[in-house]
Amino acid sequence: MEKTAKLQTGRTMKTKGKNAIRRTGGERVFDVLNSIFLVLLCIVMVYPFWYVLVLSFNTGSDAASGPLWLWPRVWTLKNYEYVFGYEALQVAFRTTLLRVVTGPFLTVGVCMMAAFALSKRNLPGRRWIAFLLILPTFFGGSIISTYIVYAKLGLMNNFLVYIIPGCFQFFNMIIMRTYIEGIPIDIEESAMLDGAGYFRIFFQFTLPLCLPIIACFGFFSVCNHWLDLQSNLLYVTDRSLQTLQYVLYQVINSSEAAFFIDAGASADTVAASLDAAAANTTPTPEVVKMTVMVVVTFPILLVYPFFQKYFIKGMLVGAVKA
């Protein structure tokens, strides 16, 4: 029996070897060159982020003496101590964190409820409602008209200007509706036979079955709120409502270390800060910029890989199902 099994295995291996597709020399050269090209492309795309990270951990005086390539020459954490001690950055972090928590929750909730309602074919005026909802997607207002509307609604210098305008996204709603329509109708009919209403069906059956699409657009909304600069730039002048992206915008556009001194500081305080920077006791403006970029940008980059599989699955299933 063992000899027979060995003979059969050997014959199978020989058959596979004969039927295997032989690769030409040109195909192998192409694979090697393609791999080298992709590796170089990855290095070109990743290295700028690595350079910013390296510079943020290097002392400012040493960074000014010559370029850095792969590792910090003189390690230090004073750059981060200096940046985290900046009061405006602390306020901006609290505002952005509150926005990231409340904004996606409200956006996904509104879009899911609209998608659930429009997925019902017996909804009166279903097509007209969808038509009215899609109009703003193609015909949006200008910056001036939007500014006037926000001013009339009392959203200027108001935290709600970060939340309310982005509550409804038609594209997100359509993908969610398609996903909901792919759920077997038998589940809803069985729940109705047991006496469940639409609210109970939505919260106890539809939402648990839509977790992939919820995670997908929830993460998209988190990215939008974290990276949004325009809302703060156009509609908010109150320093207590500044976001991280606006602080980063100010830091990048600033060329003096005196940026990190409050606007109401005296001339002596500003001069003392500049003298300290010249004496190498505080970080230089260049390393401050890089450190703020790391603080503002890298958290979302670190979270992204963990949610990638969820939004790929949610987008794929929601876009394909009919």
Describe this structure in words.
There is one protein chain. The protein is globular and about 75 Å long. Helix 2 packs across helix 15. The chain has two domains: 57 residues; 241 residues, MetI-like fold (Orthogonal Bundle). The chain is mainly α and 322 residues long. The relative contact order is 0.12. It is built from 15 helices and no strands. About 4% of the residues have low confidence.
Q: What keywords describe this structure?
A:
322 residues, 72% helix, 0% strand, 2 domains, single chain, MetI-like fold, mainly alpha, 15 helices
Percent range for helical residues?
A: over 70%
DSSP strand count: 0
Rg measurement, Å: 28 Å
Whole-number tally of structural domains: 2
Broad shape: globular
Task: Quickly give the structural class.
Answer: mainly alpha
Largest sheet: none
Q: Beta-sheet strand percentage?
A: under 5%
Looking at the structure, the CATH topology of the largest domain is MetI-like fold
Question: Poorly predicted ranges (pLDDT <50, ≥5 residues)?
Answer: 261-273
